UniProtKB/TrEMBL annotation:
<dbReference type="InterPro" id="IPR027417">
    <property type="entry name" value="P-loop_NTPase"/>
</dbReference>
<keyword id="KW-0808">Transferase</keyword>
<dbReference type="InterPro" id="IPR036135">
    <property type="entry name" value="MoeA_linker/N_sf"/>
</dbReference>
<comment type="pathway">
    <text>Cofactor biosynthesis; molybdopterin biosynthesis.</text>
</comment>
<dbReference type="InterPro" id="IPR036425">
    <property type="entry name" value="MoaB/Mog-like_dom_sf"/>
</dbReference>
<keyword id="KW-0500">Molybdenum</keyword>
<dbReference type="Pfam" id="PF00994">
    <property type="entry name" value="MoCF_biosynth"/>
</dbReference>
<protein>
    <recommendedName>
        <fullName>Molybdopterin molybdenumtransferase</fullName>
        <ecNumber>2.10.1.1</ecNumber>
    </recommendedName>
</protein>
<dbReference type="Pfam" id="PF03453">
    <property type="entry name" value="MoeA_N"/>
</dbReference>
<dbReference type="InterPro" id="IPR038987">
    <property type="entry name" value="MoeA-like"/>
</dbReference>
<dbReference type="InterPro" id="IPR004435">
    <property type="entry name" value="MobB_dom"/>
</dbReference>
<comment type="function">
    <text>Catalyzes the insertion of molybdate into adenylated molybdopterin with the concomitant release of AMP.</text>
</comment>
<keyword id="KW-0460">Magnesium</keyword>
<dbReference type="InterPro" id="IPR012182">
    <property type="entry name" value="MobB_MoeA"/>
</dbReference>
<dbReference type="InterPro" id="IPR036688">
    <property type="entry name" value="MoeA_C_domain_IV_sf"/>
</dbReference>
<dbReference type="Pfam" id="PF03454">
    <property type="entry name" value="MoeA_C"/>
</dbReference>
<dbReference type="InterPro" id="IPR005110">
    <property type="entry name" value="MoeA_linker/N"/>
</dbReference>
Amino acid sequence: MSTPFVNPLSIPVLGFCAYSGTGKTTLLKQLIPELNQRGLRLAVIKHAHHNFDVDIPGKDSYEMRKAGARQMLVASHVRWALMTEDARDGDPELVHLLKQIEADKVDIVLVEGFKKLTLPKIELHRAAHGKPFIYTHDDNILAIACCDDTELPSELRRLDLNNVGQIADFVMEYANSWQAPNPALPIATVDVSTLGSDKNLSVSQGLAQILSHVTPVTEVEDIGLDDLDNRVLARDSISPVDVPQQTNSAMDGYAFAYQEPMPESFSLVGEVLAGHQYSGTLKAGETVRIMTGAPVPAGADTVQPRELANEANAKVSFDGRIQQGQHVRLAGEDIGQGQVALTQATRLSAAEQGLLASLGLDRVTVYRRPTVAVFSTGDEVSQPGEALNPNCIYDSNRYTIKAMAKHLGCNVIDLGIIEDSESALEATLTKAAAQADVVISSGGVSVGDADYIKTVLARLGNIDFWRINMRPGRPLAFGKVGDSLFFGLPGNPVAVMVSFLQFVQPALRKLAGETHWQAPLFPAITDETLRSRTGRTEFIRGIYRLGNDGRLHVTSTGNQGSGMLSSMVKGNCLIIIGDDAEAVNAGETVFIQPFADLL
Ligand code: AMP
Ligand code: MG
C-alpha cells in the first residue's frame, strides 16, 4: 500500500490515526501530561495539511527566512527551532523527520496525522461521526480507541477513547516492551517491567514505577463552595451563564458610538451606574456618563475614561487617541454560556473557587479526599513537648509529612512514633492499611540498615526497597500493604521532604484525581558553581529571586546537610541538577522547582 516504515531511531515511534474531527489533538493534549507524569519523555511529530508557519512576521528570524534563507535555526537558552523551506508535492518523509529528533532527550516519539504510513499506530474511532474503520485496510493498527458502546468486529486491543489513563497505560506498555531493531542501539525507555527489589533507580524511573501503581479515587461528593478547600473537580463545570452577563464598561468614563471622524464634542444625555441600565438607545453624537461594570447602552460600543474627557454644559469632548471598542467588556467574553468553565481534574484553589462563584454555582462535584496514615520509627525519635533523652532527637518528619499531605487535601491519620518492636510495627501497619489509602513512614529503610521494619514490611506487604540515584533521599521503600500504597521514606528530615516532593506528591495528586499535574520547573541562572555527580540527581535547596537583568537567578542556601531542616526554611525552591551533569558553572542555567505549590 505504501513505503515500509523503518524506524531510524533508538526509541519507539507510535502513531495516532483518525479521520479529522475525531478529537486526536484533544486526546493528545491530555495524554501528553499523563505520560509525562509517568516519567515518559515525549517528542511529537504532527502532520499539517495546510501551509503553516511557526514564526511571526516582523521577527528577525521570519524576515531572514523570507529574504531567502532555506533553513533558519533560531535558538535561545530555553528553546531552539529549525525551520526548513521544503516545498514538495507529496507529504514530507516521516523517516527524514524522525532523524531530526534528539533520541537521547526523549523516550518515545508520538506521530499525529500520517494516516497512510505503515507505522505502528493506535486508531481513534468515534462511531457518531459515521466514518469507516481504518484498521480494515491497514494492518499496522495495534489498538483501537473507541467509545464504550461501539461494536468492534475485531480481535484488536480495545481502548476507551474517553479514558486517557487507559490509553496512557497502553502507550507505557508499548514503550516498555519495544525493542530497538538493532540490538547495538541503546534503549532509552523506562523499563518498568524489569524493576525489582533493591534496585538502583533514577528519579524518573522511581516515579514512573510509583505512578503506574496509583489508581485515582472514583468516589465523589457534592460540596458547597465554602467547603471546597482545594479539592479536585470530578466533572467538567459548565457555565450556566455568560460572564460577564452583559456588555459593560471597564472604566469610569463616557460611553458613545464610535464614528470616524470623531465629532468635536458629544451631547451628554444621561448616566448609568453599575447594576442599572440606560433604557434608551444612544444616537450618533450622544454620550452617557458610565461607571465601571455598568452595562454599555444600546447604540454605544466604545468607552473613553474620565481622565481623558472634558465635561461642561452637557457637552463632552475627549483627549487622546480613541480606538473603536476600547474599555468595553463584551458579554460572555470571559466565559460563554454552555462553555466548559473548569475541566474535570482541576484542583479548586482560590481562583477556581472565585470562578465557580462568578458563574453562580454554589455546589460542585469533587472527588473524595484520600486518607493518609503517617507514623515515625526509630528508638531515638522522641515526641515534641516531652523531655529529650540523651542521644535522642525530636520527631520532625511526622510534622512535615502531615503538613504536606494536608496541603494536598488529604485526611491525615497520625499514628505517632512506633515503638521499636516487630509486634508494634505489625499492629500499626495492619491498622493503618485498613483505614488509609496511603501509609507513609519515615526512617529505617536504608539499604544495609539492620532495621527490623524491613522484615515486617517484607512479611506484611509487597514492598520494594530502592536506592534512588538522588541526593538527598537515596533509600525509598514503595509497595502495597493490603490495598494501601506504602511509602517508606528515609529518616533524614530533608531527605523526607525532598522524597515527598518528588514521589509522594505526584502520587497523592494522581490519587486525588488531579491526573494532569506536573511539577512546575523554571529555568534560572545560578549565581554560584554547583557541584554534582553524574548518575545522580541533586536536589539543592535554593533561593531564587528576580535579578536586575529581569531574569530569575538562584543561589544555594549554603550547607546542604540532609538533616538540616533550616535549609528548607531558608530556601524557596529546589535546584535540580540532572544525573547527566557533573557540575554547573556560575552563570549557567539550571532548573528550579519552587516550593510555592506545597510548602
Ligand atoms: P534511618 O533512615 O532510620 O537510619 O534515619 C536516618 C537519620 O534520620 C537518623 O539520624 C535518624 O535519627 C533521623 N530520623 C529518623 N526518623 C526521624 C524523625 N521522625 N524525625 C527526625 N529525624 C529522624
Ligand atoms: Mg532508624
